[in-house]
């Protein structure tokens, strides 16, 4: 293609200037191509000359003799054929107007907002948009603003040759040229944002910025492709650029729909976009994800898509399953990204290096030049980054939203590719992130995209801000609309979409899981509001359904929803068991079968599942015709699922509650004789421990240590990993972490959050594995598993579920995992040193009169029986003790209260001490406490593990990891006051708790945020009740005053021998860290 192209250096400053260049040099070349109206097999073209002629006609109609002001903004509220729309834009530009194309789908209030933002009082409209224009006029009239309305010229006036076959050029009178000098920084035209997060925003395209976009060729530089442009509205930035500026910059026509005048224009639809594209021989397409999704279901369409040079989708996410299917079939799929305000920072498709992989595995990733000077990635602290675009020479942006910077923060959140620099995937928006009341954050876009890919779903929006669990608002497709008040129809629809919701849940962390009860189906008379490009306007959608959402949360605590499952035929245990199995199966992923004798928490249950399960049971009891059954609902304890964690146990407990005469004893069932359970669990997992056959211990070997570390993303685990990697004598570190969406990113986030050096994670000695100690072969491939077993010298097992509601048997799979490690070590040729984390919580009931808590397993299980978590650690300590008697080198690391290091101050904000400090700021005082503090800084913990890994002598059976040189509460309080500004008074703890209780009676969401101690009011109340004279000291200090023997700790760890007492500097560092995180103000 050798036709000349116009320069983009500003010598032709306006679009009419560039169009005139083509009319002179490429007059017969086509600009727009479309199927002929008289023959579906032939094509009609509009040449550059014909389009230029049309622009002259429009200029004469809209501004005769060039009278009136230059640069007047005129809004376009049109629903017309693309050929006329493009010609009108070019004609308005020629006449000296600043056109502002607007979506006619905007609300009257949205249109008024846009008009006012650019001082526009003139609109070009037509009969089909007159109702909207009339409403806009009314809104503006109330503000004493008059709106002039011009009527759109008809197709015969603009393109007579399309209507009567006459020669258009014979009728053209050249429009007068302006004598004014063009200000390249002035707006040439306006477009608007989608309005996905509120009213659409007016975005100017200056003359210079428009030329920059055209010069950059965001649709690619190739003149060998023929774009299908009919699926995009001209008022949208991408439609305008593809239909108007792309043919001017590249010199290649695009395909649009046939003009339908005087009938309404063709409404884009996946089928007619495909048909016109195929007829015209298009080799490139730009489409919405919903179109791509529809095409993916047709083998015929896929065959055509395979012939394209490129298929670009944009404007929203595409389900990975859909994209993978198309790419596997050979479709050249690419994703497009950009913003009206900041342009297109990604590589054009034809500049992306070709991959040797067929199909391309990276189709879903955006390519952003690694060294782009106008791009900055702002970390969000959760593995995601906000894209920030800066204005530089040759790259203007239309809006600035970062104070003091010529930059635009997109609010789009991306994740980097784990191994390929420059590849990024969008995962949501900052303003889309749902922060639950638990503090956990959900990026809803991936789940929403997956649910929307269901053939039954037209759109959806997740919700749950400041709630305990999320829900989802679902709009059915037109052919599947249901009346939500029809309970049977609602249940049927939920069951249809439930498999797709479960698949979406599988992609998300546990706290983001959507339960069936948390699905709201929209009503036909209240569709989800959408922007011009078809995306749901999230904020408006949630506002529209705010009453339904509030009502759902109000009733969820007393849910009576049985999800279509018939209540039990009776409340006898034998009948109840199957009903409970059916109910439980709907609360775990993929509706898996539930074994009645296996712990529910080992079958996928979590705290939220337990809450819903309990609610369903209560609902079923309350729905009974029997008054005695209804009465039993009042006696269901909040922890009933945790206390009876198998279906079999739960069935017996419930039947006994309903009919106490049946012979059951509820208190006995609750207690379960917990000490006997502990003894039985110890007996089970210490039976037949094999004797170690190893002749040489790890500490006797000259082989450099190779460590397998679990739980490396946690508070303690991340510090252990950082210190192991800092020690060059450690040959390799394997980390074994449970599966997540981005394992590497999760590790980096853990380091970044705690002020640890992220660059150490690039160390080649680090090998990150995904698996679980409790699974067969740790969940690894056989070759990988054998590699680990053949090289590891030390296992640091630091991963454990922390949930104080769970019963002992809910930890059995993890206890079994410890026994597995014992067996592996015993069978190893060189013996593997085990370092298994335990907890000083085991000793909470220790009698101080017996002296310090010893560094050995405690003999009486009653001391740890009250909580399942501590009971599980008690069992583990005894398993390790039994293993040690068989020659297995095993050490229980009984971990105390860890606190932030002096250097970084990094102390997680979910623990009681940070919560107390933040709440003290809001309450206006710190609580007076006295006595010893034996908290251990995390850096000291990390270094101690290095000592044990490098030890040249046998390690002890058990160590108490508490500070060997305790400090006093006075030191900590002084440091806290200094960090907070020395203005907070210190009052007795009972007075402090009394202030707390004043807010606990009817806490508002604001109070809960400012005073997080309200969530732990019982804990702090217990401190106050155990205090003496309003302070905490002596024997009355409860769990805080226990003294721990640290002889073995000091003997085994040289760094602990050198550890100095904590000072005010530690507490000041904590406060500094909490302030940096925005936790404490």
UniProtKB/TrEMBL annotation:
GO terms for molecular function: phosphopantetheine binding. Keywords: Phosphopantetheine, Phosphoprotein. Residues 577-658 form the Polyketide synthase-like phosphopantetheine-binding domain. Residues 705-904 form the Ketoreductase domain. PROSITE patterns: AMP_BINDING. This is NRPS-like protein biosynthetic cluster. It comes from Phanerochaete sordida.
């Amino acid at each position: 293609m050798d036709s000349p192209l116009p320069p983009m250096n500003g010598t032709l400053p306006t679009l009419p200037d560039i169009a005139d260049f083509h009319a002179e040099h490429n007059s017969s070349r086509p600009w727009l191509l479309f199927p002929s109206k008289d023959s579906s097999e032939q094509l009609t073209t509009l040449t550059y000359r014909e389009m230029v002629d049309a622009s002259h006609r429009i200029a004469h109609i809209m501004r005769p003799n060039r009278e009136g002001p230059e640069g007047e903004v005129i809004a376009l509220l049109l629903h017309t054929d693309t050929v006329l729309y493009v010609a009108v834009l070019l004609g308005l530009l020629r006449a000296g107007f600043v056109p502002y194309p607007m979506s006619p789908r905007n609300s009257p209030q949205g249109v008024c907002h846009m008009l006012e933002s650019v001082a526009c009082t003139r609109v070009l409209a037509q009969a089909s948009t007159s109702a909207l224009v009339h409403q806009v006029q009314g809104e503006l009239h109330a503000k004493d603003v008059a709106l002039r309305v011009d009527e759109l010229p008809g197709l015969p006036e603009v393109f007579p040759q399309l209507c009567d076959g006459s020669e258009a050029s014979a009728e053209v009178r050249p429009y007068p040229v302006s004598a004014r000098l063009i200000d390249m920084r002035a707006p040439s035209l306006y477009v608007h944002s989608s309005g996905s997060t509120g009213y659409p925003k007016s975005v100017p395209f200056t003359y210079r910025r428009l030329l920059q976009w055209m010069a950059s060729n965001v649709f690619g530089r190739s003149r060998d492709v023929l774009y299908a442009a009919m699926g995009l509205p001209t008022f949208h930035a991408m439609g305008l650029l593809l239909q108007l500026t792309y043919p001017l910059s590249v010199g290649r026509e695009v395909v649009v729909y046939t003009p339908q005048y005087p009938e309404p224009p063709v409404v884009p639809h996946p089928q007619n976009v495909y048909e016109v594209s195929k007829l015209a021989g298009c080799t490139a397409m730009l489409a919405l994800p919903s179109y791509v999704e529809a095409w993916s279901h047709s083998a015929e369409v896929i065959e055509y898509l395979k012939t394209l040079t490129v298929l670009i989708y944009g404007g929203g996410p595409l389900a990975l399953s859909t994209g993978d299917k198309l790419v596997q079939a050979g479709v050249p799929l690419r994703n497009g990204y950009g913003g009206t305000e900041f342009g297109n920072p990604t590589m054009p498709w034809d500049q992306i290096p070709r991959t040797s992989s067929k199909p391309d595995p990276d189709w879903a990733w955006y390519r952003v030049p690694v060294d782009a000077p106008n791009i900055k990635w702002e970390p969000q602290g959760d593995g995601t980054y906000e894209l920030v675009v800066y204005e530089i020479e040759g790259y203007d942006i239309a809006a600035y939203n970062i104070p003091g910077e010529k930059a635009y923060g997109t609010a789009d959140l991306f994740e980097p590719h784990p191994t390929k620099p420059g590849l990024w995937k969008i995962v949501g928006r900052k303003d889309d992130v749902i922060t639950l009341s638990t503090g956990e954050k959900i990026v809803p876009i991936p789940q929403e995209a997956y649910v929307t890919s269901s053939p039954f779903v037209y759109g959806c929006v997740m919700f749950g801000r400041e709630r305990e669990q999320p829900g989802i608002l679902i709009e059915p497709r037109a052919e599947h609309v249901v009346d939500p008040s029809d309970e049977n129809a609602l249940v049927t629809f939920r069951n249809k979409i439930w498999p797709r919701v479960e698949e979406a849940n599988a992609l998300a962390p546990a706290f983001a899981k959507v339960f069936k009860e948390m699905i709201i189906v929209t009503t036909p008379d209240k569709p989800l509001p959408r922007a011009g490009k078809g995306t749901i306007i999230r904020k408006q959608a949630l506002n529209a359904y705010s009453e339904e959402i509030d009502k759902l949360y109000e009733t969820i605590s007393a849910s009576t929803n049985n999800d279509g499952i018939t209540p039990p035929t009776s409340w006898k245990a034998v009948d109840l068991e199957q009903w409970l199995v059916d109910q439980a199966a709907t609360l775990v992923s993929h509706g898996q079968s539930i074994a009645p004798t296996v712990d529910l928490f080992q079958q996928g249950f979590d705290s939220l599942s337990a809450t819903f399960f309990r609610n369903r049971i209560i609902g079923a009891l309350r729905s009974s015709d029997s008054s005695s059954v209804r009465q039993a609902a009042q006696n269901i304890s909040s922890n009933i699922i945790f206390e009876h964690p198998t279906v079999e146990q739960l069935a017996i407990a419930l039947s006994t509650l309903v009919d106490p005469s049946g012979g059951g004893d509820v208190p006995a069932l609750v207690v379960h004789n917990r000490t006997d359970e502990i003894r039985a669990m110890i007996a089970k997992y210490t039976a037949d421990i094999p004797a170690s056959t190893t002749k040489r211990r790890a500490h006797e070997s000259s082989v450099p240590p190779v460590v397998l570390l679990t739980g490396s993303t946690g508070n303690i685990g991340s510090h252990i990993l950082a210190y192991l990697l800092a020690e060059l004598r450690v040959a390799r570190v394997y980390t074994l972490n449970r599966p997540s969406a981005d394992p590497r990113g999760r590790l980096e986030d853990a380091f970044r959050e705690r002020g640890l050096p992220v660059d150490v994670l690039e160390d080649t000695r680090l090998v990150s594995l995904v698996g679980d100690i409790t699974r067969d072969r740790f969940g690894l491939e056989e070759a990988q598993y054998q590699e680990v077993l053949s090289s590891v010298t030390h296992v640091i097992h630091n991963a454990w579920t922390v949930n104080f509601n769970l019963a002992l048997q809910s930890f059995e799979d993890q206890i079994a995992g410890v026994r597995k490690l014992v067996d592996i070590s015993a069978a190893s040729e060189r013996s593997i040193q085990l370092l298994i984390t335990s907890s000083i919580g085991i000793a909470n009931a220790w009698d101080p009169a017996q002296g310090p808590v010893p560094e050995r397993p405690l003999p009486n299980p009653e001391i740890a029986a009250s909580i399942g978590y501590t009971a599980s650690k008690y069992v583990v300590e005894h398993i390790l003790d039994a293993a040690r008697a068989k020659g297995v080198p095993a050490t229980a690391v009984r971990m105390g209260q860890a606190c932030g290091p002096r250097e970084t101050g990094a102390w997680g904000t979910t623990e009681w001490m940070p919560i107390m400090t933040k709440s003290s700021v809001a309450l206006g005082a710190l609580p007076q406490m006295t006595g010893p503090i034996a908290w251990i800084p995390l850096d000291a913990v990390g270094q101690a593990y290095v000592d044990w890994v490098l030890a040249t002598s046998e390690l002890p059976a058990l160590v108490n990891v508490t500070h060997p040189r305790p400090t006093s509460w006075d030191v900590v309080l002084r440091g806290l006051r200094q960090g907070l500004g020395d203005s907070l008074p210190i009052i007795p703890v009972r007075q402090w708790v009394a202030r707390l209780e004043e807010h606990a009676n009817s806490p508002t969401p604001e109070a809960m945020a400012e005073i997080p101690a309200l969530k732990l009011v019982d804990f702090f109340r217990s401190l106050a009740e155990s205090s003496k004279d309003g302070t905490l000291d002596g024997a009355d200090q409860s769990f805080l005053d226990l003294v721990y023997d640290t002889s073995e700790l000091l003997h085994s760890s040289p760094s602990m021998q050198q550890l100095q007492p904590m000072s005010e500097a530690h507490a000041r560092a904590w406060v500094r860290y909490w302030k940096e995180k925005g936790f404490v103000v």
